[in-house]
Predict the structure.
Amino acid sequence: MKKCDRSEDLLARFVHGEVLLQEKEELERHLTDCASCKALYWGITEVDRTLREMPGKLVDPPPHLRAKILLSLPDPAASRRASVWGRWAAVGGAFACALLALILLLRFGGHRESRVASLSSHQSAGRAAPVQPKEDGNSAGPIATAVRPVPAKPLPAPAPGAPVASAPRVQVVREVRIYFYCPPARSVAVTGDFNGWDPDGVPLKAAGKPGLWEATLQLNPGAYSYNFIVDGNVLVPDPDSANQMPDGYGGTNSILLVKNGNSV
Amino acid sequence: MRVASLFLRSFIALAVLAVPAASAAAQQTSIDALCRIHGIGQESDIGRIRAAYAEALDAGVTEGELYPFLQDILSHKLDCPQMVRVLSVMIRLRQENLPYFVVFSKVREGVAKGAPPALIVDAAESKLKTLLKSRDVLKSLEGLGYRVRDFQNAAVIVSSYIEKGYAPKEVVLQVRKKGVSGAGFVALAGVVEKPVKRKER
């Protein structure tokens, strides 16, 4: 009885993808022996499947709700206009700034020039050249000052969402082939840490067998959370993945481990 | 000749002065516009976001990554305090030399899944806590003589074990007792190496 209590607890966590690998193995062993727990498992799975297949998610919203939502969205033309005006204002500001700098430079540069000219004229008309380094030394001052406040650029970082393993070190990219069996799906894509959870994902193509989808990913060694996108809008974890984890948003992520030697 | 030299110097000075000024002005304008487009209109709120954005850039997050990220999360209707909290997480991670782009990924995951903004911010902060614990685990392993080849990648892998339910102390203990592979931390074996045994004389 105690074993069944433990299994019920595991079962509840298993449905939510919260069991460790060894716990999953323990549960599977128990399900092969205990008929009542097995029936409970199938019952829960059936309810879960039925809920997933309910057409509620595909029903179009009523027209008045749709109109209300569309009306509340920001006007893209207005935002574009604002952005264009903002840019022009920035360019104008920069130009004014540059013009001011030019005026200042001409003013002070001219002053130095006349000073240099007067010095050289006191010495000899043919000795303008030796004075030149001093003049250059002076002009370097303001430029160096202007450069200093610019923040130093950091080392180039990997693209957003790229695996951490792709940081400056050169890594061996592994080819990982993933499969997903889902006969009712019209389209399937995969998204995850490897592509920054792109809402479009990497599309899977039909693998020959009815209902079987496949895709090949080029990944660096590391651990990646992922989900499948079914029919463009439903995110589901990989049912065949041994590693599942709560995603922190009330759902489950599957974990793909890509080792240095070979992909898992 | 002098006129040409003066012209050249003026041109260089213009370029040097104008580029940062234009860049700063454009950045400020675009952040302001972006906030207003997405319903953050109060000047104080915009100022806070702008300051956090600038701090993140100063910390070393690249603008090429940060700006599109800001666009994405603003379009998901995060409010000003939530935005500042997410940016603070990234600043902290960058300062700790931990992989800040994990937070980009976690937040974008929430956006893709249509999670409520509050939950997204919680997830980002939770990621920070886990990564800090991972850093402590890796420091402990280094203290035991293990060599961590790729600290950032190792931190992500350790964080995945912690999120799976392993206590940080348990990870260290298991590795100490059984070694990285022996303890079953397969993914970690690629980035954390065994200590070299010293020969006793």
Remarks:
- Chain A touches chain B through 68 residues (CB under 8 Å).
- The CA atoms of residues 218 and 251 of chain A lie 26 Å apart.
- The longest strand of chain A covers residues 222-230.
- The radius of gyration of chain A is 33 Å.
